[in-house]
Amino acid sequence: MTEPKAPRPVIVIIGTGGMGLAAARRMASGRTLLLADYSAPKLEQAVETLRAEGHLVESQVVDVSDRHSVAELAGVAQAAGPLAAVVHTAGVSPVMETARRIYEVDLLGTALVIDAFCAVAGPGTSLVCVASMAGHFTSLPEEFERHLATAPSGSLLDHAGLDLDGTDPGLAYTVAKRGNQLRVQAAAFAWGARGARVNSISPGVISTEMGRAELDGPSGEFMRSMIQHSPAGRLGTPDDIAGVVEFLVSPASSFICGEDILVDGGVVVGQRWPAPAAD
Question: Which positions are catalytic?
Answer without folding.
Answer: 173, 177
